[in-house]
Design brief:
The complex is a heterodimer of chains A (270) and B (313). Chain A has 270 residues and is an alpha/beta fold. Chain A has helices spanning 3-25, 30-47, 71-81, 121-134, 153-164, 185-188, 194-200, 213-225, 259-268; strands at residues 62-65, 141-146, 170-176, 204-209, 231-236. Chain B is globular and about 60 Å long. Classes of the chains: A alpha/beta (270), B alpha/beta (313). The interface between A and B is medium-sized, with 34 and 30 residues.
Chain lengths: 270, 313
Amino acid sequence: MTKIKQLEDKAREIRRSILKMVGAAGSGHPGGSLSATDIVTALYFKEMNLDPHNPDWDERDRFILSKGHAAPVLYAALAEKGYFPKEELQTLRRLDSHLQGHPDMKKTPGVDMTTGSLGQGISAAVGMALAGKLDQKDYRVFTMLGDGEIEEGQVWEAAMSAGHHKLDNLIGFVDNNRLQLVGKTEEILDVHPVGEKFEAFGWHVIEIDGHDMKEILKALDEAKEVQDKPIMVVANTVKGKGVSFMEGEAGWHGNAPNEEELKKALAELH
Amino acid sequence: MSEKIATRDAYGEALLELGKKNEDIVVFDADVGSSTRVKHFAGEFPERFFQMGIAEQNMVGTAAGMATCGKIPFVSTFAVFGTARVADQVRNSIAYPNLNVKIAVTHAGITVGEDGATHQAIEDIGIMRSIPNMTVIVPGDAVEAKEVVKAAAEYDGPVFMRFTRGGVPVVFDEEEYEFKWGKVMPIREGSDLTIFATGVMVGEALDAANRLKEEGIEAEVVNVHTIKPIDVEGVIASAKKTGAVVTAEEHNIYGGLGSAIAEVLGENHPVPMKRVGVKDTFGRSGGPEELMDYFEISAEHVMSAAKEVLKRK
């Protein structure tokens, strides 16, 4: 089996976990989790240097889910990677669970930063990347933002800062699914074109199809070669990717599938 | 009056000393380092000093990220910009994950003076006090300020510290002073009433107490450097002893020291009480001492408040 095929299978398994846990919780954010799945899969199962048995390992690569509402994709990847048992995914958002509605670094093993208030994760990523430079460590810092999220002004403060400090150990992704809670990003507050903006702030920008595993891996290889600039991968994605009735529908931003919808969705992901 | 030193100067010196002893200390500035006095640290340890520009939200988030990597960030700017402007970043990126970031702000309160209301934080203590996991400390003079900075660096968790722009009378003896984390500090014995004071008001309260003595009133003065967690036992003990309380702070009467003391006494030992502070209004331009009089928080006003509570005793 090729590496690409293995990663695609893993991504399908993660999508199934996302749907099952959000279904069990009765709330959560499936749309933006599914659009981010292929990239998160590539990071956790190919790119990042991690040790699930030692989540706080100093030398590990970091991943900060700046679009914290996509917590289900992160939890699914962490469980799949062995940070905690997969069964625990079904406890998402429950009072007795360590899986909060948004990522909590103090409750969930493997979560590198508490996020959920949009625009803040990228700043934390800048801090981790700066610390890496200061300590002359080789780890890299990955962060994922939503295209809706980049409407937050703090993102551009962070972007300016990362460019200024030439943080080539920082690799960002914009999950460019063009939908946010209420509707289309271009109608609510148009952030496009995204790539040109980051370029203007001193980033090396790579634009890809965020569901094409080959393109994702190629972008990650390219990122390794970049010097003196942070890297932003603008990933064109489809919100709700993998489930026909969720794809491209803003309504699935923050709604859980009912039992019937879950069955239908899982049937599409075999 | 004794020598006056701005507590921001003490902060700058203490930070430099800390930097020499602890390599994990890193300092963040938002283009006000010459005023906040972190310039001394910056000059000595340029590799551990991060100039973040006029971008406070990112500064706070970056400090949080660095704290996850074992550093001890001190984030410094003016009190207005280090609290209200970044309240959500402090809440979600620092306090909620309980990260080891120190928020050290200068230019607090109306004694900022001529710059006026936009630069005079009067709600900063209230904002920080209402955020879980946050410790809130307001030193009363330069001697205390230095010890507070050292203690904050040793404590693992978020700490908010508030320093002045202008000179504050030195009330403590450098040789004898001992900072006790989370404990009130009685600094003058008295039996008629207690004046709980914080920050620049510690000196004003002592002045008021000395003048009240001339009128036959014995005021106990208690320095409350740590407003959160408030020393419940210490506050109750003094209120029980004197039976009347005045609070004094260079801050809005809502949300700060007066509120904290009222919460403790209201639930445990109600006594006649009066809060001296800015009366829910914004500041304005003027000289620091003029403003203390204008906003009715100088020693004279502490004295008036003392006489008023004694009538209700």
